[in-house]
Amino acid sequence: MLVEFLRKFPIFSGLNDEEFEHIERISVKRSYQPRMFVFMEGDEREAVFFIKTGLVKAYKIDETGNEQVISLLQSGDMFPHVGFFDQSPYPATVEVVQETELVVIRIADFDKLLIQYPQMTIKVMKVMGKKILDLQERIQGFISKDVHYRLTHALMKLAAEQGVKKGNGIYINFPITNQDFANMVGTSRETINRTLNEMKKKKLISSDRNGIIIHDMSGLNKYTR
């Protein structure tokens, strides 16, 4: 049931059973194949999306035309993070990486629901305000770190979210290029090449065409200290 899925999201914490029934009535499911776009940066903001299954990436294009990956989002994530209360255009492009099923709530439908049930507005806005502050703090802390830290953090996050056990290691089972990593952590591809090669020489990781294997999680974790 959609209600049980939506209960997992902090934005809806505090809602009672009747309020969840209203949310379920305005929710629809959509399926996407790899390389499909959910929306493009600058498009009119029409809906908020909740990932039931799959993987998507959010990115922006900088002044030089390069792709800047903001985040990889998976089952249990919602996007855009600002949610329902910002009327500005979508702040980034979201592209599907793996076959994905989304639960979609149109902002217009949600607005009508909040007008009809104003007590829901207070509950949802309190949660969103805290979420945005937490996100700002995490971003500020992340950008102050060096490339080794940022890349290691990205690898460990991917391992936690997408990794599967393979022998004594953890396999991140989808293709991600060095340029993807460079975009994700805000550096050049050459710097990522050097850093990944260093990790490979130390036998912390290895890679193939389909993904990356982390052989020594504790050794890799030293880069984040």
Automatic annotation (TrEMBL):
Say yes or no: keyword Lipoprotein present: no
Pfam families associated with the record: cNMP_binding, HTH_Crp_2
Q: Where is the Cyclic nucleotide-binding domain?
A: 11-114
For the HTH crp-type domain, which residue ranges apply?
A: 145-218
Query: Is Phosphoprotein set as a keyword in this record?
Result: no
Report which superkingdom the organism of origin falls in: Bacteria
Ordered alphabetically, the record's keywords are: Activator, DNA-binding, Transcription, Transcription regulation
Q: Which residues form a coiled coil?
A: none
Query: Mind telling me what this protein is named?
Result: Crp/Fnr family transcriptional regulator
Q: Which species expresses this protein natively?
A: Bacillus changyiensis
Q: Please spell out the taxonomic lineage of the organism that makes this protein.
A: Bacteria, Bacillati, Bacillota, Bacilli, Bacillales
